[in-house]
Amino acid sequence: MDLFPLPLPSALSTHVIFSEVGGKAMAKKSYDYLFKLLLIGDSGVGKTCILFRFSDDAFNTTFISTIGIDFKIKTIELQGKKIKLQIWDTAGQERFHTITTSYYRGAMGIMLVYDITQEKTFDNISKWLRNIEEHANEDVEKMILGNKCDMDDRRVVTKERGEQIAREHGIRFLETSAKTNVNIEQAFFNLAEDILKKQLTKDNEETSQNIHGFFPGQLELEEVSAIKASAGFGASYATRYTRTLILAETVLTRLVTCILFSSPFAFFSVSAPTASLQTLFYYHNFIGIACILQLSGRKTVLSK
Fold it and tell me: Which GO terms describe its molecular function (predicted)?
């Protein structure tokens, strides 16, 4: 088993379906979203059992300590979307700390697990929360699980204490049992639902930005504007650059190019009526920079 965070093989990370469209193979994802989840907590709290109960609906009474890290994949459906869950099971021993914390950064959801029959595992939840703050993304979704709730006769951590620490940190809480399958599926579905809500909101914001004034090449435009400003051309193009101005400025820059290079054919180097807007845009930026360099006294070499 690999102990280091190597990229997943494509066969594991992205399942695709190939279909023939117009005689060409076309790849299609079998899911809408891929969520990476992480199970953390002290050794022996039941993280692996929780994972196997959810992924395989199985429970093994034999305790085998996880070495380094392991993972399972399961696809679920939420709000009409197919969600592929990539669930990473981490070792709780301190000796694996460096290896396991390297997986925090890409996690979209983290489950912190403690054993309700072991006081120390509950006390260490604060330590695991600090690890999340240090190594995980700021917007990661979190959930606390009090596992082994079927062993109520050996309970030392009350449910109220678990709920209290969850409230203090503003995160979800559930008591679970991998052995009797209590709240296992609900825990994963709740966490995935929180991530999906955030993802859908992000997608809507990106769609709104694309509709309201953003178009390909805007970053390049701002860079060109900065160069022009440094050469004494002044005003920023970013606030006044429209399709009409693109065409108008293309004509003007071509005229300037004709004067600079004493070549009347430069104006017709690109066929304006047939060129796409994108082609004109990039041609304009190139010629614009060339003009700036010429006018600012810098040497420019143009390949023929």
Answer: GTP binding; GTPase activity
